């Protein structure tokens, strides 16, 4: 039986930060991190398409608006490690950052591996031991004197620890190791798990046929309509992909849409390709463009459909025309403005945990102390990161939740009086 004071399960963003915070506490307690994969931070490596938007530097008043379902729970953790402290810490440890549009912070070299390497270096320099290729199979109460928990591993080893921190992530991208194990271990100690569902995921339109290449739309407006009522509206960029509608704008609306679909509601999206122009003004512009096309000698003898495609090419990206025509097969100058402003798309489904960015739902927050992230049901058990019922919008918010909650859990576990 191996022994340590603080055992952390999961070497992702929350787990590595917890190890660092526990290690620098000055308590002198031994810290070990168990990771099932062959190397730490596998999910971090694919974040932001490998660029890793690791935090958002908005102040709390603006940051909290992007956190679900209970931002107040996160407040103590956020102020223990606010974004400016995190970026400063990373810079001090050799990883400078840059801030881009929307207050999103990235490593200066735009390489996710830099974040992982920095976190591992921080944890190990703080004295923590990281053990990879070590899948946990069971978490139990310990009968060993002086130790609260026993953790069994697939290699036949067992660990006894005084404090246990579960930072196993959710169920999103299971190929990175996030298979939802932490939820089962939390229930061993009586914790309730609120319903889990994918968030920041592609929404799949009814009868959707992928054209073979992504279609990207910039500066558009998207509204979600649930059971006939507008639920949310936002502005930005979106993509039509092999999964359906995603990109920053699609992701932003996906949480409410997926939850509604899970509850059996009818969900539609209404896309406005020209949000900066009123419909009457757009209609007049279209009529003017149509007259130009009709009067162009190069259009002489060309079909109505040919001319219509020329018109559409002046109003949207060429790669979007085929998709648009599937919804509006017979557009005309008279009805085109309305179609561009009110492109209704019925949503049939969504891409599941295999490709969603984050898991919504998790360990019931009322059963965890927000000031220490210690379980209210089991002394010595701490929970941090995506395993909690906390998630956020795209834009660096979710990784910051992992970092600051891990930091608080690690510090409190190390400084607790046992």
What features would you describe in this structure?
Helix 1 (13-23) packs parallel to helix 6 (112-125), helix 1 (13-23) packs parallel to helix 13 and helix 9 (279-295) crosses helix 10. Strand 1, helix 1 and strand 2 (31-34) form a beta-alpha-beta unit. The model has no long low-confidence stretch (mean pLDDT 96). The chain is elongated and about 90 Å long. The protein has helices at residues 13-23, 42-45, 60-63, 71-80, 83-92, 112-125, 181-188, 247-262, 279-295, 304-313, 318-327, 336-341, 397-415, and strands at 2-9, 31-34, 55-56, 67-68, 97-100, 104-107, 129-131, 136-141, 149-153, 158-166, 193-199, 203-205, 215-226, 229-240, 245-246, 267-272, 343-350, 358-363, 381-383, 391-392. The longest helix has 19 residues, at 397-415. The protein starts with a strand and ends with a helix. It is of the alpha+beta class. Strands 1, 2, 7, 8, 9, 10 and 19 form a seven-stranded mixed β-sheet that branches. Strands 12-17-16-13-14-15 form a six-stranded antiparallel β-sheet.
Features of the shown structure:
elongated, single chain, alpha+beta, 33% helix, 6-stranded antiparallel beta sheet, 418 residues, 7-stranded mixed beta sheet, 26% strand
Short characterization:
The protein has 418 residues and is of the alpha+beta class. It has helices spanning 13-23, 42-45, 60-63, 71-80, 83-92, 112-125, 181-188, 247-262, 279-295, 304-313, 318-327, 336-341, 397-415, and strands at residues 2-9, 31-34, 55-56, 67-68, 97-100, 104-107, 129-131, 136-141, 149-153, 158-166, 193-199, 203-205, 215-226, 229-240, 245-246, 267-272, 343-350, 358-363, 381-383, 391-392. The strands form five sheets. Strands 1, 2, 7, 8, 9, 10 and 19 form a seven-stranded mixed β-sheet that branches.
């Amino acid at each position: 039986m191996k022994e340590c004071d603080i055992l952390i399960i999961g070497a992702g963003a929350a787990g590595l930060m917890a190890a660092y915070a526990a290690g620098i506490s000055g308590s002198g307690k031994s810290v070990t991190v168990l990771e099932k994969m062959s190397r730490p931070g596998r999910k971090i490596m694919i974040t932001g398409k490998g660029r890793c938007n690791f935090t958002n530097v908005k102040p709390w008043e603006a940051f909290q608006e992007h956190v679900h379902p209970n931002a107040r729970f996160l407040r103590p953790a956020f102020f223990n490690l606010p974004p400016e402290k995190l970026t400063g810490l990373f810079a001090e440890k050799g990883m400078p950052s840059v801030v881009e549009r929307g207050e999103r912070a990235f490593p200066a070299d735009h390489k996710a591996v830099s974040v992982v390497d920095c976190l591992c270096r921080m944890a190990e320099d703080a004295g923590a031991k990281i053990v990879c290729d070590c899948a946990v199979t069971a978490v139990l109460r310990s009968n060993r004197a002086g130790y609260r928990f026993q953790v069994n591993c697939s290699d036949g080893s067992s660990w006894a620890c005084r404090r246990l921190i579960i930072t196993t992530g959710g169920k999103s991208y299971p190929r990175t190791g996030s298979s939802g194990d932490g939820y089962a271990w939390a229930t061993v100690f009586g914790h309730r798990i609120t319903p889990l569902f994918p968030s920041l995921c592609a929404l799949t339109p009814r009868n959707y046929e992928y054209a073979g290449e992504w279609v990207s739309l910039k500066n558009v407006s998207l509204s979600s309509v649930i059971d006939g009522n507008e639920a949310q509206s936002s502005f930005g960029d979106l993509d039509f992909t092999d999964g359906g509608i995603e990109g920053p704008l699609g992701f932003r609306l996906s949480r409410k849409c997926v939850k509604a679909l899970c509850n059996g509601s009818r969900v539609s999206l209404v896309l406005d390709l020209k949000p900066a122009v009123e419909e009457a003004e757009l209609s007049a512009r279209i009529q003017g463009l149509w007259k130009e096309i009709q009067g162009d000698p190069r259009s002489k003898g060309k079909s109505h459909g040919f001319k219509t495609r020329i018109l559409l090419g002046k109003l949207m990206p060429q790669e979007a025309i085929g998709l648009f025509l599937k919804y509006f097969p017979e557009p005309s100058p008279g009805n085109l403005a309305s179609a561009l402003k009110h492109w209704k798309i019925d949503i049939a489904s969504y891409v599941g945990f295999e490709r969603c960015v984050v898991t919504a739902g998790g360990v019931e927050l009322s059963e965890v102390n927000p000031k220490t992230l210690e379980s209210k049901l089991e002394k010595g058990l701490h929970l941090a990161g995506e395993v909690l019922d906390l998630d956020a919008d795209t834009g660096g918010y979710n990784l910051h939740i992992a970092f600051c909650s891990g930091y608080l859990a690690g510090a409190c576990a190390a400084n607790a009086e046992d």
